[in-house]
Automatic annotation (TrEMBL):
Short name of one Pfam family: MASE1
Listed transmembrane segments: 26-44, 51-70, 90-114, 134-157, 169-191, 212-230
Compartment(s) of residence: Cell membrane
UniProt-recorded name of the protein: MASE1 domain-containing protein
InterPro entries: MASE1
GO cellular component term of the entry, any: plasma membrane
Chain coiled-coil ranges: none
Lineage: Bacteria, Pseudomonadati, Pseudomonadota, Gammaproteobacteria, Lysobacterales
Organism in which the protein naturally occurs: Dyella dinghuensis
Domain of life of the native organism: Bacteria
Residue ranges of domain MASE1 in the record: 40-307
Keywords recorded for this protein, A-Z: Cell membrane, Membrane, Transmembrane, Transmembrane helix
Amino acid sequence: MNFIDTQWAFCGGTRMGHRPGWTKNWLVQDIAVGLIYLALYLLLRPLSHSIWIVTAGLRLSALLLVPYRQWPALVLADTAGLLYFDLPCLGQFGPLFVTIDSISPFLLAAPAVWWFRSKQGLFPSHRMVKVKPLLWCLVTATLIWTAGSMVTVQTLPLPYSQMGSTPTYVLYTALGKLVGILTFVPLALCFKLRDTSVPLKDQIKRLFTSRLAVDALVVVLPTLLALFLLSRHGQQESKDVIRIFMFVPVGWLTLRHGWRAASFGTAVVMSALFINMSHVPNPALVQTQAFICFATVSLLVLGARTSSENLFQERERLEAKEALRLAQQGLYLCEVRMRQTAYNLEQIAGTLQVTHNGILKRFRHMISLTESQNFFRQASATNAQIYQLADSLHPLSWREKGLPSALRESIGRTLDEQGFVYHCSLEGRGLSKLSPGVHSAIYRFACEAAVYVCENFACSHVSLTLRGGLSHGQRWVVIRLEGKQMPSHINDPVFKNRNTSQLATKLGTQGLGLDSMRSYAHLFDGSMHVKVAADSLRITALLHDINKIKAEQRSDSVPLAMYLR
């Protein structure tokens, strides 16, 4: 029997008392926790041996994750598991050893773990772990349980008790507990600190479809399997080199995906190394254990650093995305105000027209016909200017018939008045499903592009093409405005005498340059390209409707469900 065992337990870290159903009964909760721990202990105990005591990781994980009020249930379950394996050895090792060895290691390490959890802020929040207190907690638990194991060994009859007095055996036991803890605790933390707001089914699906799973299955696991098979043959020197190289793919995976990758990779490597390794204490074995502990801790710290950087980058990305959303919201609010202003101006123009007509009708006998006609023309000109101003702020056709009508009629009428041949075509699908903010951006960008092309290129024909689509759950639209110079219109007097100075005023544009239009496209997560030819100038922009994106898959740094500092 392997009496130098060290164990651990696991049960989810969320407060089960706040969940509906059977979990409202605290006694049922405690019994369930105890049974789950006992089942895991009985499952892992046959795999646990003196050089790789995975039950130590099980026990420490239970102390770290299970609420304090359920610790007594863990102690009882652990004692039952110890008695299950110790009682058959009563005749061989004596009642003193069985009594001492059946004392649950939970009782020894619980005060230290409580101090780290409550006083050192091991878990600052539900999804964060402090690395330094965690590592100190692992070392402290290892030392406490190693001391307990040394005391237990002294209760053995001779010659078994003599082996516990050698320094090699003490290191051998301590490192065995530490590698067992390093194997299990990181995996348990990954499970406990998962994103509980997502259903378990979706969590499993996300895990197996993540980039981490793909890299692990395609690159890391085949490489580790090949190295493991090589390590089973050859000289001892080559085996040591292969053991070192087994951590290389894990390091690559850690650099790409952070703490979760380090937890998974190191657990796989240690399982492969220790399952078939010799259990006889010797200096070479202690060196191997020490190297594995050093490599594992280094990878976990590196993974914690990588996860922190991923978190920082994710926050920057979300902040930039939020800034874009706020900028888009601001533009749309300005568009709403312009629409309301245009509507009010039209109402004022109508009121002025009625007032002027009433005044002229009342004083028609007091003024001459010529003066009456002059007043009427002045009033009509004033009304026309007000309507034109309202139309430049927000076209009436847009309010009454929608965006396609504004693109065809409002822009088309303005360009036609300046002597340009204009054509507008709508292609693709889903343009009507774009958000109102994107509709506003389409119209304003088309107006700015039309003004820029007409003012900076001697063209006679202007064509506007819109193409909408849906890719990966995200709606987008491509705006292409092209000005062409037709040879048949070169000698046209209208072409030569064309005045474009009023275009910006009539279309309500700001006269943006290419850089400003490109920045405008970036506000909608898009881009802009300009193509200049001998007889044409084309401006193409891609805009995304980020407000219509489906629930996107989070990046791997978020499903990590755990950040370390």
